[in-house]
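To close the chapter, one final illustration. This time we ask the reader to focus less on the individual chains and more on the assembly as a whole: which components sit near each other, and how the overall shape emerges from the parts.
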Amino acid sequence: MSRVLISVFLGGLMLAGGASAQVEGDRAEGKRLAGQCRTCHGLEGLARLPVAPNIGGEPAAYIRAQLAAFRDGTRENEMMTIVARSLTDQQIADLAAWYSGHKATAVLTADPAAAPEQCVACHGADGIAVIDEAPNLAGEANIYIDTQLKAFRIGKRQSEVMEPIARDLTDQQIRAFADWYGAVKIEIEMVE
Amino acid sequence: MTNKKIAPALLLSTAMLAAPLAAQEAALPDNMEKLSNMQRTDAKFTVIEQDSERADALREIVPHINVPDGFEVSLYAVVPDARSMAVAPQGTVVFVGTRKDKVWSVVDRDRNRMADEVMDFAPSVTFDVPNGPCFSPDGFLYIAERNRVLTFPAAEFFFEGPDPAVGVVVKQGDLVPAEEESFNHTARVCRVGPDGKLYISLGQPYNVQPQEKLEMYDKRGIGGIIRMNTDGTGREVYTRGIRNSVGHDFNPANGDLWFTDNQVDGMGDDIPPGELNRQTRAGQHFGFPWTNANVEIPEYQDVPRPEGVQFEEPQVEMDAHAADLGMRFYQGDAFPEKYRGGIFSAQHGSWNRTTPVGARVMFTTLDEEGNAAGTEVFADGWLDERTGEYRGRPMDIAFLRDGSMLVSDDFAGAIWRIAYNPDAAGQ
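The assembled structure is written out below.
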């Protein structure tokens, strides 16, 4: 089952990633632009408040895809819709280069065998993404993950992979998955 | 130290009086539905160490905080993610909401104005963004979550048990339709008004809501403040035309409802202003999404305004994007005369303004007609203006029984205390 998902995922990615994938990101420029991100995400990408995810050390492809989705309006958020709408492809590449370049380390103290089965193929048992198109989930506020899964469940946030997975989850399952990854400790080391 | 032994005994005897029907648990009113599902049976408390390196690090922030002459600042408690606060009627416990999954109980048993115990409240309950706690005068604690409202009778006396009695005021999913849940604009706050009804703010989940949502939002009170009886019946929209209010309180002098509002992003650094509003009767409309104060919102310039409705203007225009959140009237007598009967409000601080602004406590004085008559900075210094980085971000204001102020801070994970002590301050 996990293998099927991954191949579906990769296919979707090729299509989605096309537009901005050619643009090479400049980390120094990304660091400068990150001045408008750091109040919520920190300069190294460690979230400063629960509504924001940790983005330091996240795959560049995922950061690019999300910024593009906020800009295009296919993903909506009270804050991100505003900051992303004026970003150019180059700026998105720069920000993705800056934030993806840090080093994220997860410390899982629970038994990895107990990790949620539906999630591990892409997000890992410890919440460090296994594939480029998935976000890290380690150490996110459980409510952040809970909110995203509920949005996927009703199709408010779109993803060919996540919508079918989330569709049949109960509130309790969603919270259990969110609690698993939320309990993982994450450290993000800034890499200049 | 003997105090510590006496205090629990006192507590227990008071609890017996307050809830004679149950020795272990407070009683819910007969018509109240009990929360039965989603309660854990193996609940354990999470205790936050107060005598810690974290506390020492927070104390180093104190000298940066500026207050008027005669006031002093201290660390009251280490409380992760501290948001809206409710001081229990007897003053023993402060309940503190978060935008995560915990409500904290903060106890100062020996009354040395520093918390001795901080632990999570009702760990048997799975909370979902329990930002807003508030008390009724008779000791019922209400907790407004993202999409549910719970009540805990005599919470002040039963918080030490992991599984206190809990009733459902608004069922999961009945506050707003599930598809209108977001994370950022879903931090609810509540108050029990002078009419005994429960008032709950409902932020709308966009920067500016799309037109097709207008009618439904107006009807449900999304982008407004609703009120209901404390058993959840009789829900109605009390306040219309606001964007995302995360602070309200009633003027004890005349019962007016005052509230802050957070205004539109993306129109530049200096507009629209933040708002402090006064509401004198049910149903008043404060202009959003057509206007924020006197600034027209571009998306709604060509959309017809609701017929026969006059937009109420804010009483105070605050700095744009400073994020005015929690507020409370000062009813104590420990602060100098000028502060009595006025409003203290917290500015969380801007998140994407070119030059950050906010992270302050503001004070607004009222005139004899109950209108705002001047606003000034009361406390600041949580923003390092040299680097533009926050040391802390004030979120809500509450007052202890001794008249001193508590300021919650969800960035530092702390509650600060500001007291008037002209003899000691400045040493």
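The beta strands of chain A are 103-107, 185-189. Chain A has one domain: 2-189. With these observations in hand, you are ready for the problems at the end of the chapter.
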